[in-house]
Automatic annotation (TrEMBL):
Its EC number is 2.7.4.8. SUPFAM superfamilies: P-loop containing nucleoside triphosphate hydrolases. It is found in: Cytoplasm. Belongs to the guanylate kinase family. It comes from the Bacteria. This is Guanylate kinase. SMART domains: GuKc.
Amino acid sequence: MKSPAVNRIPRRGLMFVVSSPSGAGKTTLCNRLLQADPDLSLSVSATTRKPRPGETDGVDYHFIDEDKFLSMRKDGAFLESAKVFDNYYGTPKAQVEEALSSGKDVLFDIDWQGAQQLGEIARDDLVKVFILPPSRDELERRLHKRAQDSAEVVAARMAKADSEISHWAEYDYVVLNYELDESEALLQSILVAERLKRTRQIGLGAKVKAIIEGED
Ligand SMILES: Nc1nc2c(ncn2[C@@H]2O[C@H](COP(=O)(O)OP(=O)(O)O)[C@@H](O)[C@H]2O)c(=O)[nH]1
Ligand SMILES: Nc1ncnc2c1ncn2[C@@H]1O[C@H](COP(=O)(O)OP(=O)(O)O)[C@@H](O)[C@H]1O
């Protein structure tokens, strides 16, 4: 789905965080948003997790080893970082700063720990969305359907689901992911409305002045 233009004036970039229990569909939905929206750029995280089949280094994640991760973290290279399912994950600073300064909005597929940390450094620019599965059974079906993790890994992710879901109330928006098309449209609506917030439209004062003075 193509994203509608939003007022065609300069505005502040926003940081769009999408979290969910593993398997609820956030990666699929994020990929759809990115395809539909040239103004949105993905923050590619670094992780010590092994790549899944079909994942590409530098595109889905920067796959690095633990030594490298810990030394980057020590050097302050991450905006936020967390341990999830026994692996380290972190958001490299440089890429986010570059995207925001070039006028793009940045999409983060990160967990609640990362969302909390970003909230401490960029509250006004942050929009947080939590994706829920329609049911526990459907969550388990989706984890199996993805067929990229062992039965053991799927069981571990199901065991963690309740504690992840318990953070839902820390988010600005909650989307129940029944159908992909429907959920994509809901996420797109959130993005458009957030882009239209008066405080983000930094070009609005000049535009209003030009309208009043008949210059446009
Ligand atoms: N805090 C934080 N969490 C991340 C980051 N990158 C990914 N995650 C989260 O780590 C969890 C595991 O991700 P992944 O191994 O790709 O499995 P998924 O849950 O199936 O997407 C998910 O909740 C991701 O949102 C990051 O840079 N920082
Ligand atoms: N609304 C949906 N209906 C049916 N299957 C879905 C839906 N959303 C996601 N899926 C499937 O569920 C699996 C897990 O989705 P994924 O995006 O990898 O989840 P997450 O990133 O939250 O772990 C994938 O096989 C994906 O195609």
